[in-house]
Amino acid sequence: MLAYIVRRVLYAVPILIGVNLITFTLFFVVNSPDDMARMHLGVKRVTPEAIEKWKRERGYDKPLLYNAGAEGLDKVTETIFFQKSVALFAFRFGQADDGRDIGHDIRQRMWPSLAIAVPVFLVGILVNITFALMLAFFRATYIDVWGVVASVVLMSISMLFYIIGGQFLIGKLWHLVPISGYDDGINGIKFLILPVVVGVVSGIGSGTRWYRTIFLEEINKDYVRTARAKGLSELRVLFGHVLKNAMIPILTGAVVVIPLLFMGSLLTESFFGIPGLGSYTIEAIQAQDFAIVRAMVFLGSVLYIVGLLLTDLSYTLVDPRVRLQ
To answer: What pLDDT digit, counting tens, does each position of 142-155 carry?
Structure first.
């Protein structure tokens, strides 16, 4: 099992390096610092002096990969690649274009994102698995047929409809919760109810269909027929055998979304005015703050790779065969 874990960790290293190199190429080779300066200054006839000043203030005036004018290790360290890309591996995100510390902003904004994403994640899994087990229990009946139809309808509706419809119905007409905003502590709960409800409802269709397919595939296997032949009830077969043996695909779908718990939802946070990492990324894109966008791309890659590692490790808990690999 230890060898399995070590292999999975080693596989992640070249992937992360490759993502970092691709990010560097896109931000500094395809889109050069001069191009970034012109886009940020936003004027048609920007002077070369203004461009050089903008680059110097942000550390973009150094060579990309090799500084021939420096001495010793400075030939490598005094470069854009080392200071802007290699530094990301130590989670030194640097400063935004307006001078703010990106690392401090991330630490502050991750909590509002978690406050929404964690309840949506946990409640969503519980609701989706419950509905899917119900459809599997009543398979080939009208309940199953209409449940599938309802799931297809729900998953076919845009996320924007749920957001705008929830704000109009629950927030404006019924006045049950605020339409948007955020507050710390207990006072923030009233601002989180609507985003969480919208997040759960918008995922019921796709989640229920996904888990239903998994359960129906397990139901048709030989061990389930053997359990029924021994006289076990259908409920005990579903919860004691089918659900247990369906944990690998369930864990695959659940653990992979862990990065979203930290990165937040771009649409949800933007429409509900939540100061999380999702809205932080949107604001950076609108302000053309390339330092923040680059940091968020790298952070998202790291979290996604961590999610894949956790998925592989979780397999060892539910499938003894994986431990022997």
So the answer is: 999 999 999 999 99
